[in-house]
Design brief:
- There is one protein chain.
- The chain is α/β, with parallel strands linked by helices.
- It is about 45% helix and about 15% strand.
- The protein has helices at about 15-25, 45-55, 70-85, 100-110, 115-125, 135-140; strands at about 5, 10, 30-35, 60, 90-95.
- The protein has a five-stranded mixed sheet, with helices on both faces.
- Strand 1 and strand 2 (about 10) form a beta hairpin.
- Helix 1 runs parallel beside helix 2 and helix 3 (about 70-85) crosses helix 4.
Length: about 140
C-alpha cells in the first residue's frame, strides 16, 4: 500500500483516514501531506488526515506542492521534517495524488542534504518513480551539475 523509498520514508497516493492507523501499525511516526486541498472533489481533506494522525499519536505536517512546481521553502521544510524525524528514529509517510510529488520533494531534499544524484535516482527508480523531470534540479542542489 505504501511504497518504500529508503529505510526511513515511504510515499503513497492520497491516503484515507483509515490508512492512518495502518501507517501507525507500520511504525510511521510522521505523515507529510504534499497535496493541496481542493485538487479533486473526492480527496480526503488534510484536516481529516491530521485529526486521524493526532488520534493515532502521529506527527503531521503539510507541505503542499501544486502543479506549479517546487520552491526553496518547500525543500527546506522537507529537510527539516526529515532531520527532525531522524532524531526521533521514526519513519515517515509522505503522500500526494500519486506519490510523485512526494518522491520529487524527497529527492530534492536529499540532494540538498548531500546525497549523490545517482543514489537518489536509483532509490526513486526502485520505488517506481522516474526523476527525469527534476534531474537537472537534483544535480544543481547536490552541487554536482
Amino acid at each position: 500500500m505504501f511504497t518504500k523509498l529508503d529505510d526511513n520514508i515511504f510515499v503513497s497516493p492520497q491516503i484515507s483516514v483509515d490508512q492512518v492507523k495502518n501507517a501507525a501499525d507500520m511504525g510511521i511516526t510522521l505523515i507529510i501531506n504534499n497535496r493541496p486541498d481542493g485538487e479533486s472533489a473526492d480527496q480526503t481533506k488534510g484536516d481529516a488526515i491530521k485529526r486521524a494522525a493526532i488520534k493515532a499519536e502521529l506527527d503531521y505536517i503539510s507541505i503542499p506542492i501544486t502543479h506549479a512546481g517546487f520552491s526553496a521553502p518547500q525543500v527546506d521544510a522537507m529537510i527539516k521534517a526529515l532531520e527532525d524525524n531522524m532524531e526521533k528514529d521514526g519513519k515517515i509517510l509522505a503522500y500526494c495524488r500519486s506519490g510523485t510529488r512526494s518522491t520529487f520533494l524527497w529527492s530534492l531534499a536529499q540532494a540538498k542534504m548531500g546525497e549523490t544524484p545517482a543514489e537518489i535516482v536509483r532509490l526513486a527508480g526502485n520505488a517506481g518513480y522516474d526523476t527525469t523531470p527534476i534531474r537537472a534540479l537534483i544535480d544543481t542542489l547536490s552541487g554536482q551539475d
